[in-house]
Write a structure and sequence with these properties.
Elements: E1 2-6, H1 9-19, E2 24-27, H2 30-40, E3 50-53, E4 55-57, H3 67-79, H4 92-103, E5 111-114, E6 139-143, E7 150-154, H5 156-161, E8 164-169, H6 175-182, H7 189-195, E9 201-205
This protein binds 6-phosphogluconic acid.
Length: about 210
């Protein structure tokens, strides 16, 4: 795994933008990506790419917590690519069909961008989920321990198949989990996600790196 430590999320925003090439890109939700996507929005090259969610909270597009709504407001509209809204995921069957239509079967996404939650989850794959043992499922529905509960998510199979896997983790509150990830603690879904990929790239800010 390549580990890149930068001063802050702004620098991570710049570097991830430089490596952003698509053409098919899957984006995580949460506060990290809300901030990163704002860095990306001003750049012309995103207009030639196609964006899909890594995971989605199964609430309506206009409801609190919908990842694609956050991406729409903070990225697609300011970047002039509002049509990306059509890639909203509303359930496992629909999401899997949407991805297969775009990239074929098996699902191989050019660049998958992951984050890590404060329990070590990634995408909507949570610690203790039985589905973590199923390495053949491309897309699945899961239940979050925190609301909104119902989720749809790429499975490990699709994360591992990505041509590039990029993980972005900022913040001092994630430092002890980052250490567990680096120590190979496989009770954390994020560890499984990176261990199964041939060449993941991990971006940390200094705080998350414990510096
Ligand atoms: C989601 C995500 C999730 C996210 C992490 C980190 O929908 O919740 O895709 O996996 O990346 O929870 O979230 P923060 O950046 O808010 O800490």
């Amino acid at each position: 795994m390549q580990k890149i430590i930068l001063d802050n999320l702004e620098e991570i925003g710049q570097q991830t933008l430089e490596m952003l090439k698509g053409p098919i890109v899957a984006l995580s939700g949460g506060s990290t990506y809300k901030a990163l996507l704002r860095f990306w929005a001003a750049h012309e090259k995103v207009k030639s790419m196609s964006f899909f969610p890594v995971d989605e909270r199964l609430v309506g597009f206009d409801e609190e917590g919908n990842n694609w709504r956050v991406a729409y407001d903070n990225f697609f509209v300011p970047a002039g690519i509002p049509e990306q809204k059509d890639h909203l995921a509303t359930g496992a069957e629909q999401f899997e069909a949407l991805l297969k239509e775009e990239v074929g079967d098996p699902i191989v996404i050019d660049q998958v961008f992951l984050g890590m939650g404060d329990d070590g989850h990634t995408a909507s794959l949570f610690p203790g989920g039985e589905y973590l043992d199923d390495h053949e499922v491309a897309v699945l529905e899961t239940t979050s321990p925190k609301p909104p509960f119902p989720r749809v998510s790429l499975g490990l199979k699709s994360i591992w198949a990505a041509s590039e896997l990029i993980v972005v983790i900022p913040g001092a509150n994630k430092a002890s989990l980052v250490q567990r990830l680096l120590d190979g603690d496989t009770s954390l879904p994020i560890t499984l996600a990176v261990q199964g990929h041939p060449d993941p790239i991990l971006f940390l800010d200094r705080a998350a790196a414990g510096e």
